[in-house]
Amino acid sequence: MTTQQNAKRRERHSGPKRHPFGDRSTTRFLRTLPTFRVVHELPDHLDELLKRLEEAERDGNGGS
C-alpha cells in the first residue's frame, strides 16, 4: 500500500463517529426482531415481588 492510501484510510477511520442506530445494517437488524408485547397479567410470584418492591419504595426503607 502506498502512503497516500494509508493516509486516506486513517482519515476515513478517524472522522466523526456515527451513531450505530443510524446505520442501515442496524436498522435492518432491528426490523427483523419480533414485536415487543406488553404482558398485562403477571404470574403470581412476579406480581407478589412487584407489590413488595412498590411497598418498599413507598416506605422509603429499601425493604429492610
Automatic annotation (TrEMBL):
Residues 1-26 are annotated as: Disordered. Residues 7-19 have a biased composition (Basic residues). It comes from the Bacteria. This is Anti-sigma factor NepR domain-containing protein. The lineage of its organism: Bacteria, Pseudomonadati, Pseudomonadota, Alphaproteobacteria, Hyphomicrobiales.
